[in-house]
Amino acid sequence: MAIIVRIDVELAKRKMSVGEFAEKVGLTPANVAVLKNGRAKAVRFSTLEAMCRVLECQPGDLLEFVDEED
After folding, report:
1. pTM surpassing 0.85?
2. Buried b (16+ CB within 10 A) or exposed e, 26-46
3. Domain ranges of the chain
């Protein structure tokens, strides 16, 4: 099982920098990098909510489940 994080896709669609996104969400750029690179073990719902609010998207736009058994 793998969860693919698609923050970079949504940022590119909006031409938004990681720094600008981090500031608006209330994260450090380093923590955004951890999320973008798929190294995060968990995401708080409050953080996910803030990311969706800033990017005007749904959680499914940011996270994708990929079954590694296929």
Report:
1. yes
2. ebeeeebeebbeeeeeeeeee
3. 2-66
Closest Cα to residue 5, out of 21, 69, 70? Answer: 21
Residues 8-64: tens digit of each pLDDT: 999 999 999 999 999 999 999 999 999 999 899 999 999 999 999 999 999 999 999
Architecture of domain 2-66: Orthogonal Bundle (1.10)
- Cβ atoms of 46 and 40 within 8 Å: the answer is no
